[in-house]
């Protein structure tokens, strides 16, 4: 029985560890997604486990730069930016073994495992407007190619 629980835990941990942070979200899950608003405007979303708002923002900006380049634009301006940190409602990891006596001489053993944790979730939402030619003078304007080079994950 214990070996089945250990094998199950190992499989779950391997599956979780095998997914890269920067990826397309599937069915509202973790990763990036976008929605086209107009020919040159998008809403970009990135959702990640944990509470690293900086990394989540970097990945949202990375996706914005990719979309800009894929659509043959040179720069983009962030017109709206929101960051949310939310605690998921799940049980804490629990793996234990116990032994005890009651009023009558009896013993009990238990072996249990619950999966999940109380980690937070970060979501970043950006609305961007893309363009070519002279980039607007704004703290919210970014050269897409330069940003892509600076933020893209290292290739292994």
TrEMBL record:
<keyword id="KW-0732">Signal</keyword>
<feature type="signal peptide">
    <location>
        <begin position="1"/>
        <end position="17"/>
    </location>
</feature>
<protein>
    <recommendedName>
        <fullName>DUF4136 domain-containing protein</fullName>
    </recommendedName>
</protein>
């Amino acid at each position: 029985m214990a070996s089945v629980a250990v094998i199950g835990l190992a499989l779950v941990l391997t599956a979780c560890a095998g997914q890269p942070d920067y990826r397309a979200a599937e069915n509202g899950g973790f990763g990036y997604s976008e929605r086209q608003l107009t020919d040159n405007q998008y809403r970009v979303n990135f959702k990640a486990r944990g509470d690293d708002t900086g990394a989540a923002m970097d990945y949202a900006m990375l996706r914005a730069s990719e979309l800009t380049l894929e659509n043959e634009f040179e720069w983009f301006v962030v017109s709206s930016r929101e960051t949310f940190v939310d605690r998921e409602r799940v049980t804490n990891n629990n793996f234990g073994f116990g032994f005890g006596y009651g009023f009558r001489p009896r013993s009990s053993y238990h072996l249990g495992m619950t999966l999940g944790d109380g980690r937070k979730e970060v979501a970043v939402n950006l609305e961007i407007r893309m363009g070519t030619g002279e980039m607007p003078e704004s703290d919210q304007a970014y050269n897409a190619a330069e940003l892509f080079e600076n933020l893209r994950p290292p290739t292994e």
